[in-house]
Amino acid sequence: MSHEFLLILLGIFLFGGILSGAPVSFVLIGAPTLIAFLGAATGGFDLAFIDAFPSRVFGLLTNPILLSVPLFVVMGGLLEKSDIAKRMMLTAGALFGERRGGLAYAVIIVGALLAASTGVIAATIFMLGMIALPAMLEAKYSPRLATGVICSSGSLGQIIPPSILLILLADQISAAYQTGRRAAGDFAADPVSVGDLFAGALLPGLMLVGLYLIYVFVISKVKPDDCPPISAENDSTGLVHKLKKGEVMQALVAPLALILLVLGSILGGIATPTESAALGAAGALIMVATDSSEASGWRRKIFVLLFPAAFLLVVVKALGGANASPILLALGAVAFAVFVGGVLLAMWQEIANGHLEPVARETASMVSMLMLIILGAIMLSLVFRGLGGDEMVTEFLTGLPGGTTTALLAVMVVIFFLGFVIEYVEIIFIVVPVAGPPLFAAGVDPVWLAILISMNLQMSFLTPPFGYALFYFRSVAPQSLTTREIYASIIPFILIQMVALGLVASFPAIATWLPNVIYN
Question: How far apart are CA 410 and CA 234, in angstroms?
Fold first, then answer.
């Protein structure tokens, strides 16, 4: 059989398997394997490509970047299972609810904070849908505005770091960039790090949050009845009340400090993504333990000391680590002992309370699913290359009229429509290794392309009729809110995302300026 026929057959098997409802990871492993043996039997495929699968898998399992994924999942799971996220919503509602559009502002801001602390989109949308939606509807907010704000804010975890999408994308972008630059004759191209993508995504993510806030502000002026103010004295929604002393500090400042600690250590080059993820998971555990009703007074005092101890450890490493002055090393040793002891105490408390088991179980399930999908994508990539698919893609992209711009647009369109059908993990590990090298060989900036891809995936995540965010929201929305209304509600926010994507595409410096400032 010819390579072209086998590639067509591979595409049919893949989409047929995915649309059948079978687990995507099994489809990604099974369909290419079947085509490989069919091709080998007919003389159209060399099984030597399959022989490379074990070494690729070993490389995946020993990749230090991917070790940060389960730690970030633990961090998000701990915050999501506790009342911390709920209290963030209540406090933000109290801060903004008494002004027109205030509850919508609160949802957007909390959505951004949850994106930077949990990164688990389904959990964020569930939480916002269960807490904020009833309150907004009872406060006479437009159902369409409330739905659109919740779905769009809940999906910010795709672009705002630390994002699992960006971690996985960094690995594939770096490999594709090296391949593409070697093809262009550049054998000394710098690798692309997770820190590069986190820094590149920060401004586009904040810009998107700002555009959402501006949209709500405009709606509050144009259609004031869609987002009325709420009086704290007469409020019955539960989201607006008189703030007590220290409530903002406990509900918003502590999570924000954890976010700054994790992101700051990565962006500053102080810690690797895995080290920062471990610090974030430990910090989330301490926050949950401190918030627990089972924590006695003396335990809370110890837990509170752990945050300055963590900051001191980061400072010691920033000032030289093992090569720091003796005084700093002594302080670091004390801080380390306090931090480890406090984390062990928090772990013992939460294990005894039964709070860690469900988080560990869900983390294991999610990471196993991600790894199976990645393994399937590796198999698909090997078979695709063995059939000459990568060469066909390169010829197609380089042969398009309009050069690099048209090729980039074609890749973005393909990614957008693939986002309707399959998850971002499959898209990253299937599309980037194939389409990335010819684009990078043509001189496309890797950080810019990565941010465009992540924003594109976020947009497809929201777009009807297959947007995953809409399915998540549908499961917690009341039956009185029809699917048609949910789809209509998200249209303004998709347009906003198109504007944001267009701005980053037109002005690459939005994505590349901060990484250049930090790392150059």
Answer: 54
